[in-house]
From TrEMBL:
InterPro entries in the record: HI1420, Lambda_DNA-bd_dom_sf
Native organism: Rhizobium sullae
Gene Ontology MF term list: DNA binding
Entry-linked SUPFAM superfamilies: lambda repressor-like DNA-binding domains (SSF47413)
Protein name as catalogued: Addiction module antidote protein
Length: 96
């Protein structure tokens, strides 16, 4: 039997725009779509899921599902969430 030792909510650590930027940059660098979606969910919770959903023009329930560990948001949803949190998607040359 596994016991929970403590509850940790990573959204509580994202208390500045700089922290959000670093967090999402590191998530994007993994190249893992599910991890990136989950990281966007963490940021949305940190900023307020209801507020982000409203600004993105999406249902809050849809965001919770799309930005969960098993979520698979569309590019449209991803871009809307990024805009709502004040970020944009950009491209840069591959390091390798």
């Amino acid at each position: 039997m596994t016991e929970k030792l403590f509850d940790f909510e990573p959204a509580q650590t994202l208390d500045s725009d700089e922290a959000v930027e670093v967090f999402l940059t590191e998530a994007l660098e993994t190249g893992d779509a599910k991890f990136i979606a989950s990281a966007l969910g963490v940021v949305a919770r940190a900023k307020g899921m209801t507020k982000i959903a409203k600004e993105a023009g999406l249902a809050r329930e849809h965001l919770y599902k799309a930005l969960s560990e098993n979520g698979n948001p569309t590019l449209e949803t991803t871009l809307a969430v990024l805009r709502a949190i004040g970020l944009e998607l950009t491209a840069k040359p591959n390091a390798g």
